[in-house]
Amino acid sequence: MENTSSKPEKQGGLFSKFAFAMGNMGHAAFYAALSNYFIIFVTSGLFVGLPKNIANKLIVLITTLIVVIRVVEIMIDPVLGNIVDNTRTKWGKFKPWILSGTIVSSVLLVVLFTGIFGLAEKNWILFAVLFVILDVFYSFSDVSYWGMVPALSEDSDERGVYTALGNFTGSIGWNGLTIIVVPIVTWFTFAATGKHTEGPQGWVAFSVIIAALTIICMTITAFGTQEKDNVIRRASQKEKTTLKGVFTAIVKNDQILWASLAYFLYSLANVVTNGVLFYYFKFILDRSAEYAIVGVVATIVGFCTSPLYPILNKFIPRKVLFCLGQACMIVSYLIFIFFGSNMTLLVIGLALYNFTFAQLVTVLTLTDAIEYGQLKNGERNEAVTLSIRPMIDKLTGAFSNGLVSFIAITCGMTGAATAADMTAGNVHTFKSFAFYVPLVLAILALVVFVSKVKLTEKKHAEIVEELQRKLSEGQNDSDKECAKNTGMTRLVAPASGKIMDVEEMTNVFSEFHGRGFAIRPQEGKIYAPFDGVVRFTFTTRHVIGLVSENGLEMIVHIGIGTVNMRGQGFISHYVDGQKVKAGELLMDFDRDLIVQNGYDDIIVCFFTQPGRIKEIPSVSSGEIIHGKKIADVEVNK
Q1: Which of 27, 460, 542, 557 is the catalytic position?
Q2: CA nearest 611: which of 477, 450, 416, 454?
Q3: Helix axis angle, 95-113 relative to 124-147, nearest 10°?
Q4: Active site residue 557
Q5: Residues near 17 by Cβ (< 8 Å), separated by ≥ 6?
Q6: Where are the alpha helices (DSSP H) in 280-314?
Q7: Residue 437 C-beta-side C-alpha neighbours within 13 Å
Q8: What is the pLDDT of residues 538-583, one digit of tens each?
Q9: CA gap 546, 485 in Å, rounded
Q10: Do the Cβ atoms of 494 and 556 come closer than 8 Å?
Q11: Which residues of the chain have pLDDT under 70?
């Protein structure tokens, strides 16, 4: 049996967290170079010296290939994930792919920034092959990096710390690149040619620096973290999400559909604008040297908004925060369109543009849609649902590559063109695609979210309560595999305290209409009540669904009203789908915090398929210790 000590085991301490966080700083910088600046290089530096009509045709060809490759890559992500899951080496399953994926993709990034040493303009097939290899190995590194989190700690809160630190350093890597790209490219171009411009030589030097940074950062991650081989990791090796599964989940769940559509509209506007801001500063404002302002403002605003969100969300519903963020984005577009030449107003516009909570709100809304789908359709699509937002990001990123290239060609911003070459028509066309179209998308995102997304925090709490009621009555359960198992299950107490029968306390537990028992806990710990599997955990963490090896299905519900705490104070020591042994520690919960919030900390356990139980055990009030036998329960078909 796995470790069941009262305190979760820490995995490597501060240095492990530092090493993990460093990885995403380089990883995000690499992704920014590949997503944003490689397209800029293709449109401005790759085909310098060729006739403009030929260069533009090659730019269209290359960017079309990039878009197609990146869209197809979304579909093969599950395959790559399965390859990583099936890897067995003495260094673990993640680190070999983190290092090999990083090294191969970094080397190929430099090769592509050289124009394949002059071959890109003559051999587009070779370019496509190399880009595919680069994208596949980058994906291996990406899947392994984020998939590594459960292997670093069993503690759900600590896993959250790893993720938060990775996101924090990732924003530094992404925005930091915006700050340094023009100085680096310009300086190295000047060193090679004596010209103060962004030439091919500067872009090659830029790619070498980013490749080296990525390799160094990912090497720190590989050698500074320690993968843990335990039941949690083995339990997490489940079938990967398929593209078909994602679309099926969206079709069956209208709240996923509308939240995803609103986020898609926001994300497409966001990535397109981010992709053309370099062109805006270089060709419209003629201030390419000041492009670093974009990264500086984004970094400062990001430092403020990330920690600010949970504070604001305590008092302001997330739907209002989404509207606030979109309103800021809409105002920023109006500033870009009408007052962009005023640097003071432009900086204000950039700040408002980055002051958005759309991604955070979407993640939380999609997460809550898991219980919504379970109530509505009888299905929990956790892995599928949580994969939607990253998939939208990849999809809009791919579309952005094509749109940015189209804007550059249409507006004459290719090759050796400068701000002096821009006509009034070019400027108008640029603003139409770079700002007017994204403005419409941002407004549509707001309209869709306000009018169609109904899954507020309050609504989710109501859904959870209704789902609990149906589960307690044996409804809303479509797991046919569990129903095949029958036999005797040894049921033990999942907590220490005073035990009582739920039926005798209908005045307290009116929301539970099933059969089971309750425990007034002596400590904030939940243990496995039998040998079996953790089927699911509500996103609010206060409800755990389990099924025994012989088909006994049971819900462990922690506290009354604790749905409103939205997971605060709950620390799980398992992953959904994990096999557990009776008496194994599943969760810590903060009893004092529950009481301070005005809720009851009592633990309610009820059977979700009472009709299949031959004889439901009754319990007498009295003290009980966790792990002590309550009854042998027989399950029939």
Answers
A1: 557
A2: 477
A3: 150
A4: yes
A5: 161, 162, 165
A6: 292-313
A7: 19
A8: 888 899 999 998 888 899 999 988 988 888 889 888 888 888 999 9
A9: 14
A10: yes
A11: 1-12, 48-49, 120-121, 154-157, 228-246, 383, 473-485, 503-514, 637
